[in-house]
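Re: Re: token formats

Sure, here are both.
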Amino acid sequence: MALRRALTRQGDLLKLSGDTFSIKEDLKRLGARFDGSQKCWFLSSEGVNWKSLEFLGFIVPQTQDGATEAAPIENKVTAETPDDTSGEAVWTVSKLTQYVEAVFRKSLAFDFWIVGEISSLKSSGGHVFFELIEPEQERTLQTGRAASIPCCLWAGKFRSLQEKLVDFPLAEGIKIKLLVHCDFRKEGS
């Protein structure tokens, strides 16, 4: 299982490294500063919000009893609109997308094999985009519904695979087995 983000202590600072581009604004809001020479972020460990760091996909240091190093932070979602008196939890769109991204990065931080059928194949700027769908015969056996996953073969990876794809070109309707890495991309990132 390959870690995508790392958190290490350096004196009174926390060093945050790895795949942090998509969360740079979140890190800035926490008070982290980017160090271009080391290509990582630094954050004061004093009063750090451990839940926020965990939420962003960092593995938070644990004490021997399994608690976080700092006092636990209340994990209750509260209403975000001041005039909401219903008492229901209200999330903003960005909060939901951050949560989904954190779940993806934490739960699916490894490569795995997946089988499906290519659908909606198109290319743009050297990238190849398609849907991976359940083949018709498997749909009726499982849930009866069509399941699909959007996929992207980035231009650099596509170029490196072109030699292999000469004998096995990507096309609509073919069943393939792919070694994939799941990611959640927020709009605009």
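Second one below.
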Amino acid sequence: VVMMTGHGDVHVAVSAMKLGARDFLTKPVPLENIARLAAEFERGEGGDGSATAGVAKGVAAIVGRSPRAGALRDELTRILEATRGLSGNPPSVLVTGESGTGKELVARALHVDGPRANGPFVSVNCAALPGELVEAELFGHERGAFTDARQRREGLFASADGGLLFLDEIGEMPLAAQAKLLRVLEERVIRPVGASQARPVDVWVVAATNRHLADLVAEGRFRGDLMFRLQVLWVDVPPLRERDADIVLLAESFVREFSRLYPGEQRTLSNEARARLVAHRWPGNVRELRNVIERATVLAGSGGEIRASHILLAESSSAPAETLEGMEVAMLRQALDRTNGNVTRAAALLGISRDTMRYRIEKFGLQTK
């Protein structure tokens, strides 16, 4: 279900009857993400980019045999045991870790296995919220509260009432909004912009950041009282380079996932491909590994073995975001080469729409024949 709000925002709600939950994406939402989210729920996946091929959910979805993965599952299990049976709001949880480690997967595990499993799961990237509209996005607004507020609208806290609100990139939230968030966490009420009355809200708040909040506090960019309020419980997600024993296991789960997604038979990893994966440092963590395996699945064709030559890695010291963008460009070029520049066929090969393919071709300035 796609809901357009009064000032152009888009929320996407996908019902998952078996989970009894809803998922929300905040703007901007690429149209292919809508189809992806719906498809993932059809396959029984979590929709966070770190799913384990649609088999496991909750804490069990955290793949790995390494001591760090086991310690992470144990820590989440302890949090869930402590919050089970609580009469009030569970304590806030702060999830830290580098980009691409799977912080949203942790939040989803707390939701699926926790006391709010039957309520909504609402995810928002704080860095993507327009600075002047952060308060209205989070807490809602009344009609006429500001320019373009043509009708009353509930915010993300109200959407998450009875469930879990995941505040990703919390370190990017403006200071003014931080003060309002602190009040909500302490008093459990929200006051929409332009409203005269506050209303109670029952939300489990899980925040995440790849920044050191203590450093931001020292720089005057984050409130110390809010940091302490958020990290009543603290979960640190280890980088993939500290989980060497999990690399091949994760890669195999992604191979199974993408073998179902792309036409053809089940692919397998050759021993040389496995060795190449284990030798890499993975600056982009699990997200980078997932992208590399998706590209390798496409390069391997419709069945057979994924060889070392299919595992294309960025050997430079560039930032993870740049690395991932480079892999996306390489995948688009490969699809165009394999289809002789036919945009429609290349889009079908990559599992995206022709419009999305055309948009990405223009975005990266790629040439078609």
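DSSP finds 14 helices and 13 strands in the chain. Residues 1-24, 26-54, 316-320 have pLDDT under 50 and may be disordered.
- S.
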